[in-house]
Structure formats: structure tokens, C-alpha cells
Design brief:
- It is a single chain.
- With 174 residues, the protein is mainly β.
- The chain has one domain (44-166): Immunoglobulin-like.
- The chain is built from one helix and eight strands, in the order H-E-E-E-E-E-E-E-E.
- The strands form two sheets. Strands 1-2-7-4-5 form a five-stranded antiparallel β-sheet, with no helix packed on it. The chain has a three-stranded antiparallel β-sheet with strand order 6-3-8, with no helix packed on it.
- A hairpin with a 4-residue loop joins strand 4 (97-103) and strand 5 (108-114).
- The mean pLDDT is 90.
């Protein structure tokens, strides 16, 4: 009788060990497509790059000179823009020669005062511009109507630079 019980029991144990040894288990798998990042670009164009914004000889009292240019954020990133007067000279007396700089796109005055009155090397903030945004600027130079003969033959000049800087980094959750 023991034998009748042992043979079926042994058969069950051998079958169980074969099933366990064969690695029969549940399994699941998922995948993702290619995960990637691409850096943006920071660029801008200047409609008068490498050229003077204005240039007039033989200016007389009461004359006004307007010079214009357009800056465009041609990169893919938004950026903060600024204008810097790199160097300037002004031989005119007092406030006889005036300069006004206006962002005509936003109707904002960037500077209004004596020619050369911007601090050389100091950035003038122009704001944050989206990718593709364009801003036009008008530089207006005026020789005072009341300028005397003492102002004859005098000169003034300035060199300007435009900067764009990326915005602060952002954390993205996806």
C-alpha cells in the first residue's frame, strides 16, 4: 500500500520540479521611442550691421538727423536685448547737440539727452524679445537752433553695439 501511495506522489513531485525548473513565469515588457533633446540657437540680425546708423556733414543750427535700423531675433530662443554705447566724443558746447533713441516698435524712449551722454560701456536694457521678434530704432540728432558761431566745425561721434543674451534656464516636467 505504501508503494501505491509513493509512486503517484513521486510522479507529482517530479512533474512539479520540471515545471519550476523550466522557468514558466509571467512576464511583461514596455518600451519607449527615442528620447532626445535639441539645443536652441541665439542669433540676431542688424539691418545696418557694420555700418553707421547716421552720418551727416555740414549740420547747421536747427537741423535734425534721423537714423534708423531694425534688429531681429533670428534665433529659436527668446532673449534679453541691450544697447551699449561703446565709445563717444562730443566737441559741442553744453547741451547744443542732442540725441534721442526710440524703440519705435514699442514706442519706448531708450535715451534722451546730450549726444555722448550715455555712459560708455554701460548696457541699456531693451527688454525680452521672443524668437522672430523685430524692433526698429530711430536715432534722432539735433543741433540746437540757438547754437552760436562757436559751434562751427565741431564734431561728435559714437560707436554702438547690440547684445542678446539667453533667458535663465527653465526646468521642464514631462
Amino acid at each position: 500500500m505504501n508503494r501505491k501511495v509513493l509512486v503517484p506522489l513521486a510522479t507529482v513531485l517530479v512533474a512539479g520540479s520540471i515545471a519550476v525548473g523550466s522557468g514558466a513565469t509571467f512576464n511583461a515588457e514596455t518600451g519607449n521611442t527615442i528620447s532626445s533633446v535639441t539645443s536652441g540657437s541665439l542669433k540676431h540680425t542688424n539691418s545696418k550691421a557694420g555700418k553707421a546708423i547716421f552720418d551727416l556733414t555740414n549740420m547747421k543750427p536747427g537741423d535734425t538727423l534721423n537714423g534708423t535700423l531694425t534688429l531681429t531675433n533670428t534665433g529659436s530662443l527668446p532673449a534679453t536685448f541691450s544697447l551699449t554705447e561703446q565709445s563717444s566724443t562730443n566737441a559741442f558746447s553744453g547741451e547744443n547737440l542732442k540725441l534721442k533713441i526710440v524703440d519705435t516698435t514699442d514706442s519706448k524712449t531708450v535715451y534722451n539727452g546730450t549726444f555722448g551722454g550715455l555712459v560708455d560701456g554701460a548696457k541699456q536694457p531693451l527688454g525680452e524679445w521672443a524668437a522672430g521678434a523685430a524692433h526698429s530704432f530711430t536715432f534722432t540728432v539735433t543741433l540746437d537752433q540757438a547754437a552760436t558761431n562757436d559751434e562751427q566745425g565741431k564734431t561728435a561721434s559714437a560707436v554702438y553695439a547690440w547684445d542678446s543674451v539667453q533667458l535663465a534656464g527653465t526646468t521642464y516636467e514631462q
